[in-house]
Amino acid sequence: MSELVADYDFTLPPDLVASRPLAERDASRMLVLDRHSGSLEHRSFRDFPDYLGPADLAVLNDSRVIKARLRSEDERIELLLVEPLGPGEWLCLGKPGRKIRPGFAFPIAGAMACVVRTLENGSRVVQFDREPDLEHFGSVPIPPYLHREADKEDEVRYQTVFADAPGSVAAPTAGLHFTPEILSRITHASITLHVGIATFLPVKAERVIEHRMHSERYTIGEQTARAINTARRIFAVGTTSARVLESQPAGPIVPHSGATDIFIHPPFSFQRAGALLTNFHLPKSTLLMLVCAFAGREAVLVAYAEAVRERYRFFSYGDCMLVV
Q1: Sheet of strand 69-71: strand arrangement
Q2: Last-in-domain residue among 137, 162, 177
Q3: Rounded CA gap, 139 and 80, in Å?
Q4: Residue 22 shares a structural domain with residue 112
Q5: pLDDT tens for residues 45-65?
Q6: 165 with 292, same domain?
Q7: Which residue range forms the structural domain that includes residue 250?
Q8: Are 273 and 246 in contact (CB under 8 A)?
Q9: Nearest 5°: phi and psi at 276?
Q10: Which of 53, 127, 57 lies closest to 85, judged by CA?
């Protein structure tokens, strides 16, 4: 077992970070890793349906990204809404931190905001006098490593075609490759996990077990529970779907809403997911650790090295990897 966060590092040339999506969602390349033999195969995402048998089920995360990034009227203050806590109350990330202190009030997004308190991790609890108008004043919170402002293209492409339940502050990016045509060729069901603050926070601990995940809200509906319980093999589409599936207790899946802070890393033993579709993740990230738990650290890092050699596109707008 690799206990150090440094064991999940790899070298990535900066020009392999995809700054924009491809013209067609399903045109992404797909590196297929057989976790049992370690073999690698270069395919297109359009081949994804070929890997599902008639009794297999793809489980998608249908959370919709909200326009969670807000700026004050004078452009001096930025908030990222992370999670609603109550009427008009939000957990937020904010900057500049030295200014956004408890008691500080300011106009933003058509409302007046007041900082209630600062949490240990640096996030803020902010109370608005009315719900902030995200549609008119907010922007899509694209990842900071893109080093640019979100635009109209991001409003469409940083959202899956099956997005339904609003609540995420980051896209479940493995789902970005799907088109209605691809969905029509596979048996699929949806869970909802609202992607939260953990996506934006680096792993600062030196040892993997010292890192703590933030809790994220999820829902499993009745039809999805029934489909999962009767499927031969589950294809988890994205790490978010995998986390929801693996956080469930033993036995048949029960429809319900809840929250999970599960941190999946080696030597975790998967009980639900039989295959995993995922994008290529940041070095030393919890997402990479989850993939390593599923396929083995050595095999995954070999696959990543191959992806670098073959110039795959990395991160949110990049290509994908299917682990079977």
Answers
A1: 69-71, 78-86, 89-95, 124-128, 111-118, 105-108
A2: 137
A3: 10
A4: no
A5: 999 999 999 999 999 999 999
A6: yes
A7: 5-65+142-323
A8: yes
A9: -140, 125
A10: 127
The residue from 114, 137, 160 where one domain ends is 137
User: Are 170 and 198 members of one domain?
Assistant: yes
pLDDT grade for 75, boundaries at 50, 70 and 90: confident
pLDDT tens, 118-169? Answer: 998 789 999 999 999 999 999 999 998 999 999 999 999 999 999 999 999 9
Same domain, 88 and 201: no
Question: At a CB cut-off of 8 Å and minimum separation 6, what does 294 contact?
Answer: 35, 242, 270, 273, 276, 323
pTM of the model: 0.94
For 30, the token pair is 């797909």
Q: Which two tokens stand for residue 34?
A: 């057989």
